[in-house]
Structure formats: C-alpha cells, structure tokens
Amino acid sequence: xxxxxxxxxxKKKVFLLQGDRQRRQLIEEHPQAILVSENxxxxxxxxxxxxxxxVLQFRTNTYIGEANxxxxxxxxxxxxxxxxxxxxxxxxxxxxFVAKLLRAIVMSPxxxxxxxxxxxxxxxxxxxxxxxxxxxLDAHFEQCWILDYAWNAPLxxxxx
Amino acid sequence: MNALHTWLTLRGxxxxxxxxxxxxxxxxxxxxxxxxxxxxxxxxATRLIVQxxxxxxxxxxxxxxxxxxxxxxxxxxxxxxTTARTYGLYEYxxxxxxxxxxxEILPLLTALFIALRTGAAINTEIALMxxxxxxxxxxxxxxxxxxxxxxxxxIGGTISVLALTAVNIVIALWLTHLLMIxxxxxxLTPSDYTRMxxxxxxxxxxxxLWLKTLAFGFAVxxxxxxxxxxxxxxxxxxxxxxxxxxVRLFFSLMLIEAAALAIVYV
Lengths: 160, 266
Fold this sequence. Notes:
The complex is a heterodimer. Chain A has a single domain, classed as 3-Layer(aba) Sandwich (Rossmann fold), CATH 3.40.50.300. By secondary structure, chain A is α/β, with parallel strands linked by helices. Chain A has helices at 20-28, 48-60, 64-77, 93-105, 117-120, 126-136, 153-156, and strands at residues 12-17, 34-36, 112-115, 144-149. The model of chain A has no long low-confidence stretch (mean pLDDT 89). Chain B is mainly α. The interface between A and B is medium-sized, with 21 and 20 residues.
C-alpha cells in the first residue's frame, strides 16, 4: 500500500449507525443514491467487464466497443484488469466489491452508498482498502457515503 | 368429516395454485407481446442479448439438429413409402409424408427439442436470478429486467424456433424429392411432386403452420420465464420451479398442436 492510501478522500463520508433501522431509513431517504450492497449481486453469468458495460449500454445506448473501453479504463485505474473476464463465483471479495463499485460509478449517480462494507469485504482491512480505492477513482464520482455500524468506529479512527 | 374437510381444502388449494400459475403465465405473455411490439424495448444492449440468444438457441445446434432432422425424415419417408407401396397406394405416399412430416412432426419435434434444451436453461436461469436477487439488483441500477433480460430471450427463442423449423422443413422436402422422385423415377414424376406441394401447402395450411410455429416459439420461452419469475426466494425452490415450468410447457405445446390439428381437420 502506498502513501496515497493514507490521504483522506474529500468526497467520502462515513455514517456510523446505531442499528439496522437507522441504516434502512437512511437508504430510503436517498432514493437517488446507488447502492453497493451484499444484497445486490452482480449478474452471475456475465463477466466483470460485461457487468459494467451492460449498465452503460442499456442506460446510454453506447456502442459495445466504447462501453468496453470505459469499463477497461476504470478497471486499469484500480489495478483490477486481471479479473475483467471472470464471473462472480470466481471472484475474490475485493474483486467482487470493485466490480460492484464500478458498476455504480459508471451511472454517475449523485451519491454512491456503500452499505455495510464489513459484509462486502470480510477478509480485508476495509477502511484502508476503501480509502485507497476511492482515491484512485476520485474523478469519477460526486459523493460516496459509507454506511457502517457504530461498533466498527475504531476501525476508522486512524484512517478516514 | 375432518379428514374429508382437510382433503377438500388441500385439493382446492392445489387447484387454486395451478390456476394462479396459468394466470401468471398468461399475464406475462400479454406483457411480453406488448413489450415485443414496443419500439422502446430495443436498444444496443437488448439487441446484443437477442443476438446471443439466437446464437445459443439456433446457430450453435444447427448442424447437429439439421443432421438429426434429416435422418428422422429419411426414416419416416422410407417407412411411409414402403408401406404405401406394399398396399399399392404409392401415389398417396407423397401427400401423406408432407402432411405428417412437414406440417405436424417437424414443427413439434423442433419445439420439443428447444423446450428441453433452451426452455429448461431459461427456466433455471430466471429462477436463480430471482432467488439470488439479481433482478432486483438490475432494477436498482436503473435497468429494466423485462427489457434487458426477459424480452430478448422471448424474441431470440421465438426467432430460433421459427428458423430451425424452416430449415428442417426445407431439408425434409428436399429429401422427399430425392428419395421418392429421384431414386424412383418410374413411380412418380417431378410434376406430380410440384402439384402435390401446391395442393397440400396452400395458403391456409401455411398460415396455420407458421402461426402454430410462432405459438410454439412463444410458449417455449414465455412459460419457463413466467415460472422462473414466480419462484420464491429460497434456493431449494429452483428444481421445483424448473419441474413445474417444464410440465406446463409440455402441456402447452400439446395444446397448441391439438388446436392446430382441430383447425385443419375438424
């Protein structure tokens, strides 16, 4: 991990919530936000690259080549081109998370909500990983809110 | 009395569940027809999935299935012509072959093959997508699953059934000519063949044939999708959904065939 991962991401905001009800309420209050969540899986029969391009193609009627280029550039930016042709069951937690995040980013939503990162990245020091990832993608999103529980606050103390 | 009440309640519940499943399939069929006819359904993403569906359903199996249909046709042509010759009815064999093989068996055989291969796959895929919440995930990404995932399968599957049936019919007609006219020139002449084709495959017969094939193609995709969509979000329901979908599909295909026969012969 390089030094840049220690820099704070200005567009990132961490919400440390008291419980599930508060989390649900926050999500419901922001319908314009796009969720990155364990409950919203990737399309299992599409590769990582296709999962990203299909969003672009469907929503903006982009040519397949153009959509592939955009998705490939994003994967290159986060150093995950190795998993581009893999499908969901073959992905590690980190690769799956990156795919879900990029699928949300290509929609250019006003807010990206990362819902309970501990569920998405169970084997990773996720505040550190998220900071590094969001720094690499800083130019591609407006705001990113991380919804986590208050009992995980110590994990963020020296990072965010 | 209690036992009778329980038995009646269970039977009634079962009947109601089956009726509801047919109603769901019928509703989805209407939604699918409206979607297929709507220009807003089509964009680059949906067209790509239609192409993929046609590739996997028709193109991938074309050589093997055409070879099977050819062998099957040869078998039927030989059985019918040999039997007809034995009874001195060879002049009727040609018409019999075209009516049985071209108008009835080949379209049904194609639909059954696509139902087993593609219908089962679509049913499983949609059931798993429903169980794993993938459809909801697409919706949350601003993608309409009906337009992206469901309608392209209906369009691609229907086109595939129509195309494969057409190919098989052409092969069967060519083989009929080859085996009954070219190999036995003393029995029937090429003009007999042309006259008979003109008489049997007239406009009403062709309209019924292609409407029936269209209905086969539509049923082969719509019923598995409707069954997949109604799967409860529990993994152990996946095989149950496929089983029910396949049984409903079989009955639907038989019903379409019976209706077409009734229109032509009753």
